[in-house]
Amino acid sequence: MHPISLITLLTASAVSVSASSVPAHRQRQSSVNPEVIPKSFGVTAGQGKDTVQVGSCIGAKNALIPCYCPPAPNSPEFLNKLTTALTNGFIFSKDQVAMPITLDKFNDGSDTSADTNKLRATAMIQVLQNFNLTTKGVGCPGVSVPVLNQMQQTGVIAARGSGDE
C-alpha cells in the first residue's frame, strides 16, 4: 500500500470515529427535523379550482391561492428550502428576509415552548411566502397554510397526524 494511501485511510477512520462519538444533538445539523413540523398545513394543493380565475384554488376563508400551494409539509422541496433558509439565517440576503430562528433551535424537538413554536411557524410561513427563493414575495400566501397561521398565533402545533381542515 502506498504510504499516502495509508495515511489517508487512517485519517478518514479517525475522523469517522470522532464524529460518531459526538452525541447526535451536538453534531452539526444539515437538515430540518420533520417531527417539529405539523403533518398538515390545513389546505391541500390543487383543491377547489376556481372557474373564474384560472390557476387559482380555494384556500382558508375561501381566499384564492395558487393551485400549487401549499406544498406538503414533508415535501423534499419545502424541507430543502426551509433547511437552506435556516442554515443561512436569511432567505435572500441579510438586508431582506431574516429567519427568526436558527436551524439548531428549530430542530430541538425537546423545546415545545409556545415561543419556539411561534418562531418555527414564522420561519415556515416566510419560506412558503418566498417559495421560489429568488423573488421576494413569490410563493404561497398565508391563507394557504391556516395551521401554520394558528401555530404562529398560539404556539401550539396541530395534533400529530391530523388531516386537512
Provide the descriptors you would attach to this structure in a database record.
165 residues; mainly alpha; two-stranded antiparallel sheet; 5 helices; 2 strands; disordered N terminus; disordered C terminus; signal
What does this structure look like?
The protein is mainly α and 165 residues long. The protein has a domain at 33-44 and 71-154. Helix content is 38%, strand content 4%. It has five helices and two strands. The chain has helices at 3-21, 76-88, 103-107, 114-129, 146-154, and strands at residues 56-58, 64-66. The chain has a two-stranded antiparallel sheet with strand order 1-2. β1 and β2 form a beta hairpin. α2 (76-88) crosses α4 and α4 packs antiparallel against α5 (146-154). Mean pLDDT is 80; it is low at 1-27 and 160-165.
Structure at a glance:
Residues 1-19 form the signal peptide. This protein has helices at residues 3-21, 76-88, 103-107, 114-129, 146-154, and strands at residues 56-58, 64-66. It is mainly alpha-helical and 165 residues long.
* Protein structure class: mainly alpha
Number of helices: 5
Report the average pLDDT across residues: 80
**End-to-end CA span:** 63 Å
Uncertain regions: pLDDT < 50 for 5+ in a row? Answer: 1-27, 160-165
Strand order of the largest sheet: 1-2
Radius of gyration: 20 Å
**What does the largest sheet look like?**
2 strands, antiparallel
Strand content: under 5%
Percent of residues in helical segments? 25-40%
Shape: globular
Keywords: Signal
